[in-house]
Every structure is written in C-alpha cells, then in structure tokens.
C-alpha cells in the first residue's frame, strides 16, 4: 500500500514536484482529469493539488471523499494567501495545508511532517513532545539526505531546531523512551541516525555538558551518516556479508559526507570531523584516514561510541536488537579502539536501555 495517494492536475509543477517527492515516499499518483463519479478512492492518506476553483471537480472530489470509509490525513496544496482556496480545502476535510509555490525539498519535508506520526499510530509510550521531536528529527533527515542527493539545500536552522527538540526530549524523558518511539516509526539509516542523535545527547546530558554542547551532539548524530545518502540501497540494506568491493563503497560514506558538507562555509569544522572520522579508532585501525588517538577530537570519540552502541541495539529485519547491557559489553570489549574513560562514562546511558 502506498504511503500516499496523490491527486494532481496538470497545473504548474504538480507532477514534477510529486515525482521528486516520490524519492522519499511511495506515492500513487492519480490525475484529476481521470477521476469520474464512479472512482473509488482508497482509504489512507491523500495529497491533493488541484484547482479548487473548478466547481465540477470540487463536487466530484467531495462525493469521493465522503464515500471513503475512513479518513486518513488529507493534505491540500493551496496557493499561498488565497483565502478562498484555503476555505475550500478545509471544507473538503483538509487536515494539513501546503502553501504553493513550494520547492521539492520543502514539499518532501512538509509531507513527511504531516505523515510521520499519525494520530492512532502512536501509543501511550510516545509523549507529544517526543512525537514532535521525532517528526522534526525525521524531517531534518529527509531534507538533508535529499540535499545530499542534489535536491534542495541543507537547512542548518532546521537542523538546529530538530537538535534542540531531541535534546529536550532526552532531558525530559530519557534515552530508553526515545529508542522505543524511534523504533516504532523508523527503520534503516533514519532509525540509526535518530538513535545516534538521542544516544549522543543522552551521553552529553549524563556527562553534565552545557546545554549547547548537548545540542551539538544531537546535531552530530543526525548528520554523521549523511554520506549514506549516496550509498546504493542494495549495499546499505544488504542482509548478508558485504564483499570487499561493497565494503569499500559502504566505507566511502565518511568521505562522501565530508565532501558534501565541506562545500559550505557555514558547517562548523567539528561537525565535518564527526562526519569524516566517526569510524576512526584510537589504535589507528579505523577509516577513512587511519587516525590515531591524538588526532581524534573528543566530539568524534563520543559519537563513535554512541554509533557502535546504536548499531547494536537497532531493530533490523534480519537481526534482533540487543538489550543495552549486552550491547554495552561489546562496546566495553573495544577499549583500546574506543576511549576507556568515555566507555566507563557511557555505562549508565547504556544500562538505561532495557531489553526490547
Ligand atoms: Fe557511519
Ligand atoms: Fe552511523
């Protein structure tokens, strides 16, 4: 079943925008011209970008929408500031509005915000603040991964906002609850990056870092694997062991991510270091540059420990997530490659992660 059914007309940009958004969601597109009174719209979420001034079309839409058994989200695209269109959209049952014109990355972001957490999908383990932090975090990941593929720009203000939301949620509710929320809604690299963001923030919080440093850690977690946006899915999602050649491609995500971010002048050097060096080990056995202890900054060391831990507690289709204490033992066994004192400091954070 697609994430979204889109009803679009041949208005400016509608199809082009939807084809871009298609990279992020499974979208079934229906052209409004093909709709007729006998059309049965499926249940689920809808995106509607049609001329709401077209009376005949609006009345067929109204019939079709009222005939649906259950209403999901209904996201309507309306020209910015056109009051009549907004009123019409709400009259048809819109739950969210997207103002036009809108760029592809912003559209993907708006849709993901509207769709990430639907009422009824959340359980009581997810607080409103946690849900919002997740929507923000996932929205940022979608937009930065899109930017890494050449669609739109990385919005550092949005990234900062999402990092604050993650840091707030971790401070208020703890890492364990964040993990449960993330794992219910996300998988793959997004799950991983959200867990690293939350884990790094929890680590910083536990170490008594300043609030701004905790947020910086959350940002580092969200950004660290941005280079994976350019690693083919068949390698990223491969269930069996990677070949040497595939491993080389996978490992290139560090350099790719660094290259993507270093084209900008406003990404702090410490974040560039995290993206490039989060797989380096103190004994020089890591990649891509084989750095040794003295060359690896503190922020990177913290992210590396969290990154290893997050990979172990992740829920994947082919592997059971490890409980925190078991994952911690594995991290602990890596002293020599990871900083001993930091591993010790990480223990309480890891132990707070209960068995899934
Ligand atoms: Fe990585
Ligand atoms: Fe990672």
Automatic annotation (TrEMBL):
HD-GYP domain residues: 167-356
Origin superkingdom: Bacteria
Pfam families reported in the protein's UniProt record: HD_5
Coiled-coil blocks: none
InterPro entries, A to Z: HD/PDEase_dom, HD_GYP_dom, HDIG_dom
Protein name: Nucleotidyltransferase with HDIG domain
Source species: Labrys wisconsinensis
């Amino acid at each position: 079943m697609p994430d979204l059914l889109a009803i679009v007309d041949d208005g400016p940009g509608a199809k082009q925008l939807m084809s871009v958004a298609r990279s992020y969601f499974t979208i079934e597109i229906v052209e409004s011209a093909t709709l007729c009174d006998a059309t049965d719209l499926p249940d689920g979420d809808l995106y509607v970008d049609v001329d709401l001034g077209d009376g005949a079309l609006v009345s067929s839409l109204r019939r079709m929408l009222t005939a649906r058994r259950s209403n999901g989200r209904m996201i309507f695209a309306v020209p910015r500031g056109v009051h009549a269109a907004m009123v019409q959209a709400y009259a048809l049952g819109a739950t969210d509005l997207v103002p036009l014109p809108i760029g592809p990355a912003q559209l993907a972001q708006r849709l993901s915000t509207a769709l990430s957490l639907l009422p009824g999908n959340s359980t009581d383990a997810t607080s409103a603040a946690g849900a919002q932090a997740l929507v923000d975090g996932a929205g940022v990941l979608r937009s930065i991964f899109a930017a890494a593929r050449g669609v739109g720009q990385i919005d550092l203000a949005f990234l900062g906002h999402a990092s604050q939301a993650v840091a707030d949620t971790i401070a208020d509710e703890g890492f364990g609850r964040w993990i449960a929320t993330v794992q219910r809604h996300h998988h793959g690299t997004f799950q991983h990056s959200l867990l690293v963001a939350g884990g790094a923030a929890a680590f910083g919080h536990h170490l008594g870092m300043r609030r701004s440093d905790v947020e910086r850690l959350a940002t580092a977690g969200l950004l660290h694997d941005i280079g994976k946006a350019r690693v083919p899915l068949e390698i990223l999602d491969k269930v069996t062991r990677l070949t040497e050649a595939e491993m080389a491609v996978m490992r290139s995500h560090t350099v790719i991510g660094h290259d993507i971010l270093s084209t900008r002048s406003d990404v702090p050097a410490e974040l560039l270091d995290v993206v490039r060096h989060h797989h380096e080990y103190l004994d020089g056995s890591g990649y891509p540059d084989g750095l040794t202890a003295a060359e690896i900054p503190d922020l990177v060391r913290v992210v590396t420990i969290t990154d290893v831990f997050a990979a172990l507690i992740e829920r994947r289709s082919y592997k059971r997530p490890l409980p925190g204490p078991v994952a911690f033992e594995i991290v602990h066994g890596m002293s020599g490659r990871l900083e001993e004192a930091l591993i010790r400091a990480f223990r309480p954070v890891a132990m707070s992660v209960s068995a899934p």
